[in-house]
Design a protein that fits this description.
This protein is α+β, with helices and mostly antiparallel strands and 143 residues long. Helix content is 34%, strand content 23%.
Length: 143
Amino acid sequence: MAQDEIDDLAQEIGKHTNMMIEEYNRGIFFYKSRGSDTVQLNTYAGMRAPLQTTVLGKTILASHLKPEVEAIIDRHGLPQVTESTITDKDELFDELETVRKRGYAHDDQKRVRDAVRRGPGHRRERTRDRGDQRLWPPQSDAR
C-alpha cells in the first residue's frame, strides 16, 4: 500500500523517493523508488541513518517534543556525515522549529554532497510506525 504510493509519486515527479521509519531513535530507510529523471543514491531498504542527517529524519524529529529530541541527542550525538550536516544542538532545534512552521523539511547537502531534498512535514498525530517519504531532486532542480 505505502510502496504503491511511493512508486506512483516517483513516477509522477520523475525523482528519487524514499520512505523512512524510526526505530530506537535512528532512521531506517524502509523503501525507495526511482523516477525516470534521477540519480542513484546509496540508500537501500534497511539502511540506518542518524535522524538529523536526512530530510526524513528531520521531519521525524520535528514531530517529537524537545525533551525527546534532547534524549536522542544524548544517546546518539549529532554525527557529521558531510561538511553541511547539523552537528550543533541549538542549530538543530532552530531547524526543527522551521520544519514545524514551514510544514516540510529542506535538506541542503546535509547527507549527500550536491543534493537538495525536500520532505513533507511530519505531524505529531501520525503514529511513529507510519514513517514518511522523501523527494530527492538534484540540486539544480530543487531551487
